[in-house]
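INTERNAL AUDIT FORM
Audit reference: QA-55
Scope: verify that the stored structure record matches its stored sequence.
Auditor: D.O.
Record contents follow.
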Amino acid sequence: MWRTAVRFRRQPGLNRNRPSPGFTLIEILLAIALLGLIAFLFIGGASDLFRAQEKSVQDVFWQSVQSARLQAVQEDRTVVLRYDEKLHQLSWGVDGSGSSLDWPGRSVEFLPEDQHNSILLGGQLVDTGQIPFVRMYADGGTDRFRVHLTENGGRISRLEIDPWTCAPIVSKEP
């Protein structure tokens, strides 16, 4: 009986020890899991963008200050910023006309820079010399002033404003 040996010849360049091209099941599952995680984080973060957020009294105050300052610089004129107690709005403009923002807090008090108009009343330091408005100048500066922002809950924020940059002056509390 003749045995014939059948030998298969390998083709040149074909190596059976090398893995075949493509992705394994683990790699595919890992990629899907990462895409799911990224989508979850994006959807969770994006929902905050579309949710209406209540503005704080400081946000509204700084928005009005920066808008008044920008208008003064752009128009090269002095712009007046004031608080209207009757309409409950911060308004700014030239010659009594301009823009306004509804005030979410209880009140705004513009006070002179010096603290000599203060008295101690019932253990609280109370300012007696309110000023009706502050001016924003064409060079980007403002009057020297302080401001008391009162929220609806009664919390008061006291800020001193730098006349050159219209930014709050941070002071060290005793």
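Auditor finding: record pair retrieved intact. The helical segments are 25-50, 57-75.
Action required: none
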